[in-house]
Amino acid sequence: MKKFLTSIPNLLLSLLLCFVLSSCSSTGVKVNDSSPWKTIQFEDQANVLDVDFIDNNNGFLVGSNRLIMESNDGGETWDKRNLDLPSEENFRLLDIDFKGEEGWLIGQPSLVMHTLDSGKNWTRLSLGSKLPGQPFLITTVDNGVAELATTAGAIYQTVDSGESWSAKVVDASGSGGVRDLRRTKNGDYVSVSSLGNFFSTLASNSDTWVAHQRASSKRVQSIGFNPSGDLWMLSRGAEIRFNDNSQDLESWTKPIIPILNGYNYLDLGWDPNGDIWAGGGNGTLIVSKDKGKTWNSDPIAASLPTNFIKIVFLDKDQIDTQKGFIIGERGYILKWQG
Length: 338
Hints:
By secondary structure, the chain is mostly beta strands. The chain has a domain at 45-168: TolB, C-terminal domain (Neuraminidase). The chain is 6% helix and 40% strand. β15 and β16 form a beta hairpin. The radius of gyration is 21 Å and the shape is globular. The termini are far apart. The model is unreliable at 1-8 and 11-26 (pLDDT under 50).
């Protein structure tokens, strides 16, 4: 009798857990037999933070501790490069973006650099002392035209190769600060507030951030656009959601929780086949071939001692076939093999 009574709380807890999980879309995850990814590991374990290509063969990656590397064979091999920066200054190089031979890169603290010759020579630009926040995202829009977004949600545009910058946002406070920020090709932005408690959107023809409620009580980890321009959201608790009504940015699907392993997903990306990839902590990399209904785990990624922090698929006029990279920590990246 005593044993039966002590088992009642455990039974109630199990029933409660089943009830909670029944409100989510949770699927089992099998391991794929093969992987479309190739592992690249650098001896320097500085964290890679971004990658971009100029054409089919030539590209750069940047990262922490002033890391900048160049590839001339489509990303198969990489060689270290140096920037003309004082040795006492240490930067996290966050973002790099090219359009043709012209490119921009940014870093923290307060670094913006510009090239007109495919990265052979870089010019450092002065941002002044009144820039709100730190550089976070840079986009090469056209010849001499670029947009710079900061951690404070401010967005500036230059039309004269960085000689001058004009503000595109009237009041940056509407973004709530930035922990994640993305831009579409047509100039729309979406950001996650620094605390992850709401997200904001900025239309290309607007100068004001519009705040939106998060999909649940879970804090938002990251947010972005799918190839069609619709939003997706990653929340704490390894939750994946998709906006199910493009006219209502606070209407979201039920959370999809493919794996409950204690690690959050950090980024989402669509490969050239339309498959969805989600990367996260402790080598977590999963793929869905049916728009998020079911997921499988990647066999190569699971064996790597790294966190996958960014998924990049490059689709540019200068590149014949779409390139893909998954950026991990501790010197690991994955290269898309198709």
